[in-house]
Amino acid sequence: MSETQSAGRVAGERVAGERVANGRILRLVKSGPELRALESGQVDAVLDRSTGTAYLLPDARRAMSAAGGQIANSLLAALPREDYQSLLGELEPVTLTAGEVLYESGERIRYVYFPGDAQVSLVIVMPDRKALEIGLVGREGMVGIALALGAEASPVRALVQGSGSALRMKAASFREALGRCLALQHELHRYAYAKLVQARQTAVCNRFHQVEARLAGWLLMTRDRVRSDQFHLTHQFVAASLGIRRVGVTNAAGALQRRKLISCRRGNIRILDRNGLKKAACGCYEIVRNLTG
Amino acid sequence: MRAKKANKSRAGPAVMTVVVMRLYIADAAPNSVKAIANLEAICKEHLQEGFKLEIIDVLEFPLRALADGVLVTPHLAKLAPSPAAKIVGNLSDRSNVLHALGIKS
Fold first, then answer.
1. CA-to-CA distance for A217 and A283, rounded, in angstroms?
2. Would you say residue A27 has pLDDT above 90?
3. pLDDT digits over A107-156, tens only?
4. How close B32 comes to chain A (CA, Å)?
5. What average pLDDT does this structure show over A180-194?
6. Interface contact A34-B71, CB threshold 8 A
């Protein structure tokens, strides 16, 4: 096997640091039983005589990191440990930044994302560039679910609403993992069904419910995903998500503030009374929450 | 037949051969955990009390591992009885491990 091939077997080409690590590993282990063990994936760490340092291989580091901490994403956390471990080699930790577009509507899906503390809005964009949010994805879900249902392109724009961590996987690796992992299939089908119900409920909600009730429900959904009563969102962003004018958000947020349910200051939103906010929200929030968790 | 008897008479009280090994691992990395589990199973089945095992974490003691000629982990070194031997990997190839340790399966 050539050095390039064995580099791919050991860790794949993920980030520059790992490529450097692979190059170093291959210089350190050139032949013998060490190279055979490395090629068969049975090595955790490589020692460097010149620096007196032990380098943990990326797969080992990822597995140890996952075993040491809780799995942030609920879909991944629901998988049996062995299935999750089998996916780890393909999952790449990334940081998503608010305002970043993961894919535009109609664009080919290159990666699927399993958010940790990041939140992603799924937005339908009309030809006149008006946009409406039809779903919100956080730690309970996955961005790119269309791929699990056989589609190649995203039907929506995926826009990062809240910065944070996520794990991403290449589309080809995801399809391969889906083919061999029944537990992953089951979890994603359950999740896809929940998203379908959420989209239907959102359509009804947008048509029939008052802005104040919709905003209350939307803030609670955001709260569930960030697991914090305080988060940063501008009125402009909320308006785009709810498909209303900015002044509509200002008025509705003002009404919720007067009822002492929330406080807003320069985009910093704090939920003061969660139960009160639940009462102010329309019933759609609880319906969607019961399905998506 | 005679030879067999002679052997028996020369043997005297049974002397237990102790296998001395050193296993180099990397903390709780997956292959290291597997190597410990595989070696423990082999020791329990074939060596009972007749072994000494030292486990060294190379992330804590890299210089010691390098001084012992270790390049990757997991790495099992059989130190005694001679001949010395080494096995690299997670020790899942049981027959290979038994052969290196001089144990007849």
1. 8
2. no
3. 999 999 999 878 899 888 888 777 778 788 988 899 999 999 999 999 99
4. 7
5. 90
6. yes
Type of residue numbered A46: V
Residue ranges of chain B whose CB lies within 8 Å of a chain A CB:
25-32, 58-59, 62-63, 65-66, 70-74, 86-90, 92
Rounded to two decimals, the pTM is 0.53
Residue A174 contacts residue A87 (beta carbons within 8 Å): no
Name every chain B residue with its beta carbon within 8 A of the beta carbon of A87.
Answer: none
Supply the angle between the helices A171-180 and A182-208 in degrees, to the nearest 10.
110
- Do residue A34 and residue B72 have CB atoms under 8 angstroms apart? yes
Name the token pair of A266: 């320069």
In this prediction the ipTM stands at 0.83
A22-26 long-range CB contacts below 8 Å, 24 or more apart?
Answer: A24/A48, A24/A55, A25/A55, A25/A57
Q: With an 8 Å Cβ cutoff, are A29 and B70 in contact?
A: no
Helices (H), B12-58: 30-42
Of the listed ranges A22-26, A69-73, B10-14, B40-44, the one predicted with least confidence? B10-14
